[in-house]
C-alpha cells in the first residue's frame, strides 16, 4: 500500500515533487498495482508549471497525482537553487521502460495504450509485444483529436478501457490534456495505475528520433528536441523556461529574506 511517508517529496513552487530514484518509483508503483489501489503518475517540468499558472484544473491534477516526477533538467536545477535533494530527473520514458521491464519479469500483467493515432499505436503494440512478451496488451485506443472530449466521447473511452480491465493505463495525449483527463476520470476507471507520459509512444515506435545519449546525460536533451520539433517546442524553451526560473529565483529570495 502506498503511504504518504513512503513517497519522499520536496515542495517546488507549491508542488510536491517525488525525490525517489527511478527504481524506488517502480517498486512503489508495483506495490500500488499489487494492492489494487487506484493511483496515477504525472510529470512535472518548467513548461507544465508555466501552464498551471493559468490552468487551475491542470494545477489541481498535478497536485493530486500520487507520484509527481521531476521530468526535466529545469526541475533538477530549481531544486538545487532552492536547496533541495533532487539529483536526477525522471522522465515519462524512464517510467515507461523501467516499469515495463519490471512487470515483464513478473508476468500476469495487462497494459492499455491510450493516445496518438491508430498507425502509431499499431507500431507501439508490434514493438511492445517483441520487447515485453510476458505482458498482455489489453487494448489500445486512439481518441478524437480535439481539445476537449464531448460527454459521449469520454463515456465511450472510459467504457472501452473498463471492459479491457488493464492493470496499467499508459496515456499519451500530451500535457495538460492527459493530466486533466486522468484527474477527471481516475475514480471511474477500472485500472490499478495510470500514467501520463506525453510523447513517449512517438519515441518508442521511432516516429521521433530519441536524443543522443551524451546530450541527455549532460542535460541538453531539450536542445536536440527543439531542433527536431521547433514549432511545437519553442514556447517551452523561450517562454516557459524563463517563467519557471523567474519563480524559482523569486522563491529563493523570499526564503533568504524570511
Automatic annotation (TrEMBL):
The chain crosses the membrane at residues 12-30. Keywords: Glycosyltransferase, Membrane, Transferase, Transmembrane, Transmembrane helix. Pfam families: Glyco_tran_WecG. InterPro entries: WecG_TagA_CpsF (IPR004629). The keyword tRNA-binding does not apply. GO terms for molecular function: hexosyltransferase activity. CDD domains: Glyco_transf_WecG_TagA. The keyword Cell inner membrane does not apply. This is N-acetylglucosaminyldiphosphoundecaprenol N-acetyl-beta-D-mannosaminyltransferase. It comes from Polynucleobacter kasalickyi.
